Amino acid sequence: MTNETWGQIREGLINRVGRNNYTTWIEPLKLSQLRNGVALFEVPTSFFGDWVQRNYADHIRNHLVTSGAPVERLEFLVGAENGAVRSVAAKPTAAPRAPVRARAAAEDDLPGAPLDARFTFDSFVVGKPNELAHAAARRVAEGGPVTFNPLFLYGGVGLGKTHLMHAIAHELRERQPELRVLYLSAEQFMYRFIQALRDKQVMDFKSLFRSVDVLMVDDVQFIAGKDSTQEEFFHTFNALVDQNKQIIISADRAPGEIRDLEDRIKSRLQCGLVVDLHPTDYELRLGILQQKAEFYRGQYRGLTISQGVLEFLAHRITTNVRVLEGALTRLFAFASLVGREITLDLAQDCLADILRASDRKLTIEEIQRKVAEHYNVRLSDLIGPKRLRTIARPRQVAMYLAKQLTARSLPEIGRRFGGRDHTTIMHGVRKIEELAATDSQLADDLQLLKRLLQG
Ligand SMILES: Nc1ncnc2c1ncn2[C@@H]1O[C@H](COP(=O)(O)OP(=O)(O)OP(=O)(O)O)[C@@H](O)[C@H]1O
User: Which domain holds residue 413?
Assistant: First the structure.
């Protein structure tokens, strides 16, 4: 099999892995050779090869076998600039840690935001929901040749985007102090730009932003709808990419979902690696709590917190990490003030408001409204009797989400969908489950809606 044939058959994987994953991980793979049951792919970086090996190797192998190629295993080689290749197994060599001396010289004139010293890789707890974002951030922080540009991190409030960006900046500054690393929020980018316009110093602004080696812009959704800032951002972005300088961006949603952001910017933002920080799961929350509790134990000497209380908090506070941290901080401060032990009772008293807010239940009406808005259909149609496919499918999506995201029974859901029978709801839920397994667009829609509803 040649690379050309691979190019023709690989599209069959879109349904298995979803379009986004296909574009990011499958399309860039070049089949270098297929011999003795081993398919050898060329990949841009060792990180890339590792990720594909871990997550997509089985899909690719099965697909090759069903397409008639006798493949037993996959191997990945990193394509080097001169055409030579090195095996993915080879550990990437970390850039030597240079002394911190050159740092001030490199960044003296940069108008960035200060970095939070606590936001490092060491203090970032890794779990399934943020595994890829963390790995990608680590890769960028190693420095070396730019492999994906930009790195686009997105996710709901308080899930660690800023933490990861600061961690990259800390690490780069330590490894390569001569690099000009600029971190700022999109809001600060806009104010600096407006200030430059007002002071007639736009050329200075442009040359300053084009002189950095690494640009990090946090919360980029802020510039949506702000036309001249978007324009300037677009030119800065292009100038840096042309110079092969690393850009790291964060936002509260994927580039394609940011309203009022110009299409050309969306498409630029999608060119690199787009990574989602998923809402936390129980294990990750517990891990974060354990790490922070360790820190507080040192601060409030003599004060301890039992595993049971930590588990209780991880179960009950599911909104985001910022709230979780806030709860623990309050608990330690309160216990130390009143001189009491941290018990479950104390936690329930002291955190009553946070626990109540976390208990807020999503309603079926909220789900229906969000789904109607997403598919651009009327709420009354979504609940009503119309059988048109353009309405019936969103209706089934809403039924599916109502079952997944609330504790309501099928008859209860049926009542809220215009008095439908529970078997109709069950049919709708099953239909969406089946379709989502093969229809990547639908799977993406479900993921987005869940995030919006739970965020
Ligand atoms: N995986 C993690 N391990 C340790 N701390 C974390 C983790 N995720 C988030 N945090 C902590 O949660 C708090 C909120 O994180 P951060 O500010 O990075 O969120 P964000 O995604 O940028 O949110 P926003 O969109 O509101 O800016 C920070 O104190 C951060 O250190």
Answer: 364-454
State which of 343, 358, 373 marks the end of a domain. Answer: 358
The answer to whether residue 22 sits within a structural domain is yes
* Number of compact structural domains in the chain: 4
pLDDT 10s digits, 326-358: 999 999 999 988 888 899 999 999 998 888 877
Dihedral sign for Cα 79, 80, 85, 86, please: negative
CATH number for the domain spanning 298: value is 1.10.8.60
Q: What is the pTM of this model?
A: 0.66
210 with 297, same domain: the answer is no
Q: What contacts 257, CB < 8 A, 6 or more positions away?
A: 448
Which residue is associated with the tokens 């039992």?
Answer: 306
Q: Are residues 270 and 293 in the same domain?
A: no
Which value does ipTM take for this structure?
Answer: 0.98
The CA distance from 80 to 62, in Å, is 28
Spell out a b/e string for 37-73, using b for 16 or more CB atoms within 10 Å of the CB, else e. eebebbbebbbbbbbbbeebbebbbebbeeeebebee
Atom of ligand 1 minimally distant from the CA of 287 = 3
Residue ranges around ligand 1 (CB below 6 Å): 119, 123-125, 130, 155, 157-163, 252, 288, 321-322, 325
